[in-house]
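Support request, priority: normal
Reporter: lab tech (M.K.)
Component: structure prediction queue

Hi team, I submitted a job for L-threonylcarbamoyladenylate synthase from Streptomyces ramulosus yesterday, and the status page still shows it as pending. I've pasted the exact input below so you can check whether something in the sequence is tripping the parser. The sequence length should be 206 residues. Please let me know if I need to resubmit or if it's stuck on your end.
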Amino acid sequence: MAKYFDVHPDNPQRRTLGTVAELIRSDGLVAYPTDSCFALGCRIGSRDGVARIRSIRQLDDRHHFTLVCRDFAQLGQLVQIDNDVFRALKAATPGSYTFILPATREVPRQLQHPKKKTVGVRIPDHTVAQALLDELGEPILSSTLLLPDEDEPLTQGWEIKERLDHVVDAVVDSGDCGTVPTTVIDFSGGTPEIVRHGAGDPDRFA
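Reply from support: The job had stalled in the queue. We restarted it manually and it finished. Here are the results:
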């Protein structure tokens, strides 16, 4: 049965998020809010967490997972990024964007695209997500909480608890999230390619 944590959206309780961070470190899978919508998240090295996300969302091995980072110091350890791309990303973050870039050796092979060796990264503009990343001290491996055969992500914490009670370990609720996933931009070819139009304004990369 999933634990349910009601967190203040502007002043999240550090002790509560410390408990959530400990769950993640112990290979737990949590549902947590971001600046686009709710996400499923686990520790980067958690094979069980990855398998559970794939099962819940019915994803194949070509799916790009997203590594949610607190800042550019974390992001820079996970992806290869040149100066031009860095400037483009810096101007758009934190925000509702996911960037696809070549992965470094720090990223487990199972999280990389099997052919392209890329991975998605982002820095969210969300108080609770940032506070959780602070408590954890490392990026969170994440995927949008969009269930199979549904058009929109789940937006209510209580509904997530009700529907995923036996497949996640915790639900972090700080109020309604949006229903629009991030805008995804692929920089792996050197120039930006908009893969998915979402919550972030894509025009800055057009």
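The longest helix spans residues 14-25. The two ends are 45 Å apart (CA to CA). Let us know if anything else looks off. Ticket resolved.
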